[in-house]
Amino acid sequence: MNPLLNLIVLLSLCGLTLSRHVQFYLNGYECFYQEIFAKTKCSLEYAPISGSKPHVDVTVEDPNQYVFYRKSQQEYDYFHFETNVTGTYRVCFSNIYDLMMYDNVIYMDFVVGEEGKMVRLRDGQTPMTQVETSIVNIYDAMKVVELYQNHHRIREANGRIVAQSLHDKVMAWSLSQAGAIVLMGCIQVYILRQFFTARKDEI
What we know:
Blueprint: H1 3-12, E1 18-26, E2 29-36, E3 41-51, E4 56-61, E5 67-74, E6 77-82, E7 87-94, E8 96-97, E9 100-101, E10 104-112, H2 130-196
Antiparallel strand pairs: 1-10, 2-7, 3-6, 3-10, 4-5, 4-7, 8-9
Transmembrane segments: 170-192
Signal peptide: 1-19
Membrane topology: Single-pass membrane protein; Single-pass type I membrane protein
């Protein structure tokens, strides 16, 4: 086979994983569906990255409607599992608490298949060429970079939420203190004027 054609085909087939990176607006209840074969390793990573209440309820169901993963009011989680049956799996998110719906932006990374696994164009006993080895190394390094990017994106979003909440509280406290100082100053000026103001009936 032509080495150039071999390289092009290898690049086109280098990933066997199905990865779904989603950022979606959640206001109530939202579900995602995915066809998965049995004995497939999958992973689910999610986190609410903005919203008035950064918590979310999550459930994962198999094709038989059996809920094998359920979490309530989560800020972040990473769940790895292996499917038992072939069919449509469902991942649902909810942010309805105390009969109230909160607005959130949710980040979800749903990976179906083994990360880092690549297609070999030739027999597994045949050693790879230097170009193929370089491609495999680059692919593995990019997968690691992608995982780190996802992790730090979620951490940065959560940190931004905490910082924004702290900023709002400090701003409200500062404004209340400034208002109290102005009010106390006005009261002091009024009291001092009463001491030095002579009434007409007293003259």
